Automatic annotation (TrEMBL):
<keyword id="KW-0547">Nucleotide-binding</keyword>
<dbReference type="Pfam" id="PF00448">
    <property type="entry name" value="SRP54"/>
</dbReference>
<dbReference type="InterPro" id="IPR036225">
    <property type="entry name" value="SRP/SRP_N"/>
</dbReference>
<keyword id="KW-0342">GTP-binding</keyword>
<dbReference type="InterPro" id="IPR013822">
    <property type="entry name" value="Signal_recog_particl_SRP54_hlx"/>
</dbReference>
<dbReference type="Pfam" id="PF02881">
    <property type="entry name" value="SRP54_N"/>
</dbReference>
<feature type="binding site">
    <location>
        <begin position="113"/>
        <end position="120"/>
    </location>
    <ligand>
        <name>GTP</name>
    </ligand>
</feature>
<feature type="binding site">
    <location>
        <begin position="195"/>
        <end position="199"/>
    </location>
    <ligand>
        <name>GTP</name>
    </ligand>
</feature>
<dbReference type="GO" id="GO:0003924">
    <property type="term" value="F:GTPase activity"/>
</dbReference>
<dbReference type="InterPro" id="IPR004390">
    <property type="entry name" value="SR_rcpt_FtsY"/>
</dbReference>
<dbReference type="GO" id="GO:0005525">
    <property type="term" value="F:GTP binding"/>
</dbReference>
<feature type="domain" description="Signal recognition particle SRP54 helical bundle">
    <location>
        <begin position="12"/>
        <end position="91"/>
    </location>
</feature>
<dbReference type="InterPro" id="IPR000897">
    <property type="entry name" value="SRP54_GTPase_dom"/>
</dbReference>
<dbReference type="InterPro" id="IPR003593">
    <property type="entry name" value="AAA+_ATPase"/>
</dbReference>
<keyword id="KW-0675">Receptor</keyword>
<feature type="domain" description="AAA+ ATPase">
    <location>
        <begin position="105"/>
        <end position="256"/>
    </location>
</feature>
<dbReference type="InterPro" id="IPR027417">
    <property type="entry name" value="P-loop_NTPase"/>
</dbReference>
Length: 310
């Protein structure tokens, strides 16, 4: 295994410790009897719900455990393995890295999400990921609503060494995006990542702004934006699900990135999101450094969430 890969696995399993220990403590703590009975199954289901996997997923896992283990000797590792396999089956179809395959270039990726979700950091981490794959990357500071957002993105752009197109605070976001696409096209850039304002408080304004960005983009390239990626903060738990619902309504979300899985005992929310919406999940964030965002392997992630050995 390469050093890089081993490092990522450490961060993945380490980052998800809070989620997995909540789940495994619950499961190992309850299995005190000789045979698995209905009460144990109820407790397992409660533990799964408490980890934010969602009632549907919890019920499905409970059924699987009941089918194979009811009235049999209790084997915590066997139960954990069922949890892992069920989670992996839900995650496998949605684990989809963001591929750069747009022609003509650039591929335009709109990044949306509420303030504080980790949007800016995620843009920097994605840019870093693409740079590692030798793509030419450019950023566009389309969140013109707050000067801080423009400044923060610029700091990241300078740090990772990618060009950035900005406009004045309070300026026209679509104008910034227009300039960025023109410049990216002229410079033969492969990927243009666009930050957007996360004003969910005013759905109408957000919708209008995104629609205008789309119109402007469409004039330069009818295929753009190629991706509309919604960034979600795992620590918000069930709230992340309502954000998906709302953003699906205002923007044509094509995929998700879930951040802060390390800061939370609610990592199960990723599984709940996959089960409920079936949208591609491009990458997960398990820390604050630039390397802490990666596409994931469904089985590895399921093992990390269910508390299996690395
Ligand atoms: N632990 C952890 N922290 C993260 C992760 N991703 C982002 N953060 C942190 O979350 C905070 C908010 O991230 P930003 O990228 O500034 O979020 P934003 O959505 O752009 O927020 P605003 O700038 O407020 O709009 C920062 O302190 C990040 O370092 C992650 O995967 N894990």
């Amino acid at each position: 295994m390469s050093e890089e890969k081993a490092g990522w696995k450490d961060r993945l399993f380490g980052g998800l410790k809070k989620t997995s220990s909540k789940l495994t403590d619950n499961i190992t703590g309850l299995v005190t009897k000789a045979k698995l009975d209905t009460e144990d199954l109820d407790e397992i289901e409660d533990a799964l719900i408490a980890s934010d996997l969602g009632p549907a997923m919890a019920a499905q896992i409970r059924e699987k455990i009941a089918a194979g283990r009811f009235e049999k000797g209790i084997d915590a590792e066997g139960i954990r393995q069922i949890v892992e396999d069920e989670i992996a089956a839900v995650l496998a179809p949605v684990a989809e890295p963001l591929d750069i395959d747009a022609f003509p270039r650039p591929q335009v990726i709109l990044v949306i999400g509420v303030n504080g979700s980790g949007k800016t950091t995620t843009i920097a981490k994605l840019a870093h990921l693409f740079l590692e794959q030798d793509y030419g990357v450019m950023l566009a500071a389309g969140d013109t609503f707050r000067a801080a957002a423009i400044g923060q993105l610029k700091v990241w752009a300078d740090r990772i060494g990618v060009p950035i197109v900005t406009g004045p605070e309070g300026g026209d976001a679509a104008g910034v995006v227009f300039d960025a696409v023109k410049r990216a096209t002229a410079e033969g850039i492969d990927v243009l990542i666009v930050d957007t304002a996360g004003r969910l408080q005013n759905k109408r304004e957000l919708m209008d702004e995104l629609a205008k960005i789309r119109r402007v983009l469409g004039r330069l390239n009818p295929e753009a934006p190629h991706d509309v990626v919604l960034v979600l903060d795992a620590t918000t738990g069930q709230n992340a699900l309502s954000q998906i619902e709302i953003f699906k309504e205002v923007a044509n979300v094509t995929g998700l990135v879930m951040t802060k899985l390390d800061g939370s005992a609610r990592g199960g929310i990723l599984v709940a999101a996959a089960k409920q919406f079936g949208l591609p999940i491009h990458a997960i964030g398990v820390g604050e450094t630039i390397d802490d965002l990666r596409p994931f392997n469904a089985q590895d992630l399921a093992r990390a969430i269910s508390g299996g050995a690395q």
